[in-house]
Write a structure and sequence with these properties.
alpha+beta; 3-stranded antiparallel sheet
Length: 356
């Protein structure tokens, strides 16, 4: 249920900010208030639209018994009731607790699973899909670490994706992605099943997670290379061990300084994600049944090439547009996952209110 007092306070806060913004302000205050006003804008607009729809319906209901206008008024009241129901749900969703990491960038990790070379090729397909999606969103993708498969694709690829709202859009991609198709090397035309795992971690800043110098051990390693005459024989790779957790990260590019920066970036992201997982588990004992548990072992999606379909098993949604999906047009699936997650949140809130 929407609480009128809470809605009133949000509108009043927006009006107060509008008043302050109309007067001279120092730069820091101006930026802070402008950001808060922008965050309030969607919900305040929805509240005002709801109030207007409720007032219009009240007027229409007064005319329902009128001999001349009754039928028209009843129809208008019914339409306004439907609009009020939609606006109420929109406001409920806008008032849901925000994930503090939603606006952050993300560390995207893709690893080939079962299926040998075909799994590595599929991991490559997934990475290109996310790269194209990032292009559509005008995000930036920077590869931090990669290990290519023998016949193409990747055994492992780790990338930093930066832009507005990256984690909010990608966080439900974590899990096992399964592919069903006929490999190019399969002479008999038999369909093979292989898999790759995807992990999406919110990019952590220094203020998000503290890493004490005494808690880590940094070592240099032999950097990876393509071999041959251009083989890199210098010890420019970086290996970091986080003693409290036993977590190890490795970056093996050609620049030792860049490797150190990237390794610390990956370590912060993984430690931050670990803390988020702990907090989420503590908040909800039934978390395994929700969308986006982050369980890396959970099979979340199947890409079936013979039938041209992609199915997300968490929300039982199948799209018969595999070709365009792999070209990065995944918003329909992402939107459905976000909506399902919000529905779960609303149901949980309603259950808590009912129990209270």
């Amino acid at each position: 249920m929407l609480q009128p007092q809470k809605l009133d306070s949000l509108v009043k806060r927006a009006e107060t900010i509008d008043g302050r913004l109309s007067a001279p302000l120092d730069t820091e205050t101006l930026i802070k208030l402008s950001r808060e006003r922008a965050e309030l804008e969607p919900v305040v607009n929805a509240i005002r639209a709801l109030r207007k729809a409720e007032a219009d319906r009240a007027e229409a209901l007064q005319l329902v018994d009128d001999a001349e206008m009754g039928a028209i008024a009843a129809e208008e009241a019914a339409q306004l009731s439907a609009e009020i129901e939609k606006l109420t749900l929109d406001i409920q969703r806008l008032l849901l607790p925000k994930d503090a990491a939603d606006e952050k960038g993300a560390i995207l990790e893709i690893r080939a699973g079962t299926g040998g070379s075909e799994a590595a090729l599929f991991a490559g397909d997934l990475f290109r899909m996310y790269q194209r999606y990032a292009d559509l969103k005008r995000w930036k993708v920077e590869v931090l670490e990669e290990s290519e498969g023998e016949h193409g694709g990747y055994k492992e690829v780790i990338a930093n994706v930066t832009g507005k709202g990256v984690f909010a859009r990608l966080k439900f991609e974590s899990g096992v992605h399964r592919v069903q198709r006929v490999p190019e090397t399969e002479a008999s035309g038999r369909i093979h099943t292989s898999a790759a795992t995807v992990a999406v971690l919110p990019e952590a800043e220094d203020v998000d997670i503290e890493i004490r110098p005494e808690d880590i051990r940094i070592e240099t390693t032999r950097a990876s290379s393509a071999g041959g005459q251009h083989a890199n024989t210098t010890d420019s790779g970086i290996r970091i061990l986080h003693n409290p957790t036993g977590m190890i990260v490795i970056s093996t590019g050609r620049s030792q300084h860049q490797n150190r920066v990237q390794a610390m970036q990956m370590l912060r992201a993984r430690l931050y994600d670990m803390e988020r997982q702990k907090a989420d588990s503590a908040r909800s004992a039934a978390r395994k049944g929700q969308v986006g548990t982050g369980d890396r072992s959970e099979r979340i999606r199947t890409y079936n090439f013979p039938q041209g379909r992609v199915t997300d098993h968490r929300i039982n949604l199948t799209l018969y547009k595999l070709d365009t999906f792999l070209l990065g047009e995944i918003d329909e699936m992402v939107d459905a996952l976000i909506t399902s997650h919000q529905a779960d949140q609303l149901a949980a809130i309603a259950e808590e209110e009912g129990a209270g």
